[in-house]
Write a structure and sequence with these properties.
The protein has 454 residues and is an alpha/beta fold. Helices cover 25% and strands 26% of the residues. A 9-stranded mixed beta sheet has the order 6-5-7-8-4-9-10-11-12, sandwiched between helices. A 7-stranded mixed beta sheet has the order 16-17-15-14-19-22-23. It has a 3-stranded antiparallel beta sheet with strand order 2-1-3, with no helix packed on it. Helix 9 crosses helix 11. The N and C termini lie far apart (94 Å).
Length: 454
């Protein structure tokens, strides 16, 4: 009689990757409901005894000779990655379907190859002729770009072991499978196993690894959270399919700042860099004052951006006034309206308020507060705001205007674009100055509104 070996099964959360011995309605780690998926656990051989050949070295004696990085010749892409792509560095790129992830990666591959670097492009979704058609549209020559269509991690590992590549790109990690798992591609076990194999190999052989990941309906990278933990950098490609612009934003970066963003414009021949982002996000006639429109200044990393905040305030038709925010947090809008009514006496409880950042850009910068409140007050009173006046400042709960960072950069950007005046916090007076701008320091919200729309 043949003896059959029992196969161990476990339940994994599709959101965070936590393992559970049995099915339950809610994941005990992340709290997500109905996210547990049953998977077979492959039998693994016991790890060999430790040999004791562990490399030990003093931190002060570690050499950095082999840490010279690569640039893609796409300035916006390199900025978000921390300036360069380092050997052994692993990057995860997420974004909505059709946003341009594959286009961006193929253009970056072209930039690396033009510097003489061998690049491997692994496609699990497109055939080789489809990639060729896309490369022709993007005018990518690809003389040093090797393309394979493969989804088995064992075959990919074999290719990487037989050849030396400087940069390896995988499109996408959810299509890669391991023969050790019976589950279909994209499940927790498959994604975790494939990512671990590739990241370990990248660290050992010293090639840079770029992974493209699918996203869930909430906008997060699909698969277990461990996928984001094992890579060095996680970036999201954001944008609206109805708009031409795209934003590349880092949420994790071991080799650079997560405050930097890259701006692109979708063109017929691929993604083009936005040279002047401030002019790109400013709408309407440059010197036409309008009620409810205020130009604000924010800094994303070291980059100053001037954006237009628009507000529309109308009498509420129903008992519950509407609060609709585009580009800013809805709770933030409710908080600012409470400050405006309490500290300045504006009747916001009887009005519907609609606020939007022109261009569709999403911002969390607190220095946007004063411009939002000025746009709302301007729309309520129907008094236009000068289009050549920049408004900068964070507003506290007691109505004080608080200092913002990089105010000097914002003033320089405003002067370069032809603005005539800047309204800014009094506490920033010693850090800001421009001979081309009329300086308007303010201490509290009421005095600021008097100078902006008075």
């Amino acid at each position: 009689m043949l003896s059959s070996k029992k196969t161990r099964t476990a339940f994994f959360c599709s959101q965070c990757g936590a393992e559970h011995p049995r099915w339950q309605g809610q994941c005990r780690e992340c709290g997500e409901w109905n996210s547990l998926i049953e998977e077979h656990i492959p039998d693994r051989k016991k790890s060999p005894a430790r040999s004791g050949n562990v490399t030990k070295q003093l931190l002060s004696e570690i050499s950095q000779e082999n840490l010279s990085g690569f640039t893609s010749e796409i300035g916006e892409f390199d900025r978000v990655l921390g300036g360069q792509l380092l050997p052994g560095m692993t990057v995860l790129i997420g974004g909505d379907p059709g946003i341009g992830k594959s286009t961006l990666v193929l253009q970056a591959a072209d930039g690396y190859s033009r510097q003489g670097l061998p690049v491997l492009y692994i496609s699990g979704e497109e055939s080789l002729p489809q990639i060729k058609m896309r490369s022709q549209r993007l005018t990518v020559a690809g003389e040093r770009i090797t393309v394979i269509n493969c989804t088995a991690i064992e075959e990919i590992t074999g290719v990487l072991s037989e050849n030396d590549y400087a940069v390896v790109m995988v499109d996408s990690i959810q299509t890669i499978t391991s023969a050790q798992f019976d589950s279909p591609p994209g499940t927790v076990g498959q994604v975790r196993e494939a990512a671990n194999h590739l990241v370990t190999l990248a660290k050992a052989r010293g090639f840079a690894l770029i992974l493209i990941g699918h996203v869930t309906k909430e906008g997060m990278v699909a698969g277990p959270k461990v996928l984001e933990h094992i890579v060095d950098t996680v970036v999201y490609f954001e944008g609206d399919s109805s708009r031409l612009y795209r934003v590349l934003r880092a949420v994790k970066n071991r080799f650079g700042s997560v405050a930097e963003i890259g701006l692109f414009e979708m063109e017929s021949d691929g993604l083009g860099e936005v040279v002047n982002p401030s002019a790109f996000f400013l709408s309407g006639e440059p010197h036409t004052p309008r009620a409810g429109a205020v130009v604000a200044g924010v800094c994303e990393g070291h980059r100053p951006l001037l954006v237009e905040v628009q507000a529309l305030v109308t009498p509420a038709t129903y008992g519950n006034p509407q609060r609709v925010a585009g580009g800013i947090d809805n709770k933030k809008l409710a908080l600012l309206l409470a400050i405006l009514e309490k500290r300045c006496g504006y009747p916001m409880a009887t009005h519907d308020v609609f606020v939007s950042v022109a261009g569709g850009l999403r911002l969390t910068e607190p220095g946007l507060d004063l411009a939002i409140l000025a746009a709302i007050a301007s729309s309520l009173t129907n008094k236009p705001v000068s289009a050549d006046k920049l408004v900068v400042g964070e507003v506290g709960l007691s109505g004080e205007v608080r200092a913002v960072v990089n105010a000097d950069r914002l003033a320089s950007e405003a002067a370069k674009l032809g603005f005539k005046a800047i309204v800014y916090p009094e506490s920033n007076r010693s850090h800001i100055g421009s001979p081309d701008l009329e300086m308007m320091p303010v201490r509290d919200l009421q005095s600021a509104l008097d100078r902006i729309i008075g």
